[in-house]
Every structure is written in C-alpha cells, then in structure tokens.
Amino acid sequence: MLTQLNAHFLNHLLDQNSWAADRLRPLGGKAIELALPPFRTRLLILDNGQFDPAPDETAVLASLSLRPGAALRFMLDRQLDATQLSIEGDTELATEVGKVLQGLRWDIEEDLSRVVGDIPAHQLTETGTHIRRELGRQAASIAGMFAEYWLEEDPLITKKTHLAQFSRDVDALREDAERLEKRLERLEQSRR
C-alpha cells in the first residue's frame, strides 16, 4: 500500500515536471529501491518514464538511501550533500534516478488550487515559502552561533588561521631541531 502511494506521488511529480519522464524512459524495465529510514520502497521504472511498485520477484538493480536528517535539510534548502546519500548496486542507474528525483519540483500551489481555489492556494503557498525561508535562516543562525561558541568560548574546532600558524610553528621547530642536531654533531667532531 505504501509503495503504491509512493509510486502515485512520484508519478504526480513526474507529470508536473515533463522533462523527468524523458530522462527515465531509457531506464524502463529496471527496478530501484528508495530508502528514507524507516521507509523503503521498491519501484519499477516503466517504459513511459513513470514508476510502478516492483513485484517481489523483480531484482532490484540499485538502491538509493537518504540519511534521516538529509530529508529535512533537502526540504529546507533543496541541496543534497554526497555524504547524505548512499548508493548501492548499479551506480549509473542510481545516479540518474537520483538526479531526476533531486530535480523534481512540486507545484503545491496548483494542487492546492484544486481544493481551495486559486487565491487561497497562492496565499497558503506564499506563507509556506516564507516559513521555509525563515526556518532555514534560523537554522543557519543557530549553526553559526554554535560554530562561534566552539571556535571562541569552548574550542572544539580550530580556526583555519590557527591551524596554519600551528603548522608553521611545527615546521620552524623541526628546522630548529635539525640545526641544533648539526651543531651538536660539529661540536662532537671538533672534540675528537
């Protein structure tokens, strides 16, 4: 049931983004697993570029897994870091499907307008966009405050300039130690 809903929702997004089905058509007949823990969905790519639940006997050629926190980050800033995504199996298939899924845009306003009308749908969408931006701004602000605290007050992370200075100091100490070693060798030789 959940797989059917996922396929239906993804197909709805594919319909709203006509370019996406064109990119999936060459992959027709291949099955992929999408995972956003705790949910897993096995989908078959159809020849028309749409998704269908994959029958149990269908071999899954690739698996895309998104870390739980990555989904929230993706919803806020529409960016995915490669470390947030795990790919198994056919990497070309998984990469192509991943690019298509990342590029999909949901026209929420159009869907809402069918339920509540055009003007309320527009207002709700604008409000949602404002809330999403504000959440992103506040998350960035909080992250900045933590970074500043960890850099200045309770140093858990090192500033780049401090790290560079430390490297220069280590190099200078190594060079001084080498010079001292050579002097000691010369002194020992002169004593003999």
Mean pLDDT: 79
Specify the CATH architecture of the largest domain.
2-Layer Sandwich
Q: What does the largest sheet look like?
A: 5 strands, mixed
Question: How many distinct beta strands?
Answer: 5
Class inferred from helices and paired strands? alpha+beta
Radius of gyration: 28 Å
Strand portion, in percent?
5-15%
Low-confidence sequence ranges: none
Q: Class of the largest domain, according to the CATH hierarchy?
A: Alpha Beta
Helix content: 55-70%
Shape: elongated
CATH fold annotation of the largest domain = Nonspecific Lipid-transfer Protein, Chain A
Please name the fourth-level CATH homologous superfamily of the largest domain.
SCP2 sterol-binding domain
Order of helices and strands: HHEEEEHEHHHH
Number of helices: 7
Task: Report on this structure.
The chain is α+β, with helices and mostly antiparallel strands and 192 residues long. It has three domains: 2-103, 2-Layer Sandwich (Nonspecific Lipid-transfer Protein, Chain A), CATH 3.30.1050.10; 107-157; 158-192. Helices cover 64% and strands 15% of the residues. The protein has seven helices and five strands. It has helices spanning 2-16, 18-24, 68-77, 91-103, 108-116, 118-153, 160-191, and strands at 31-36, 39-45, 51-53, 60-66, 85-89. A five-stranded mixed beta sheet has the order 3-2-1-4-5. Strand 2 and strand 3 form a beta hairpin. Helix 5 (108-116) packs across helix 6 (118-153). It is elongated, with a radius of gyration of 28 Å. The model has no long low-confidence stretch (mean pLDDT 79).
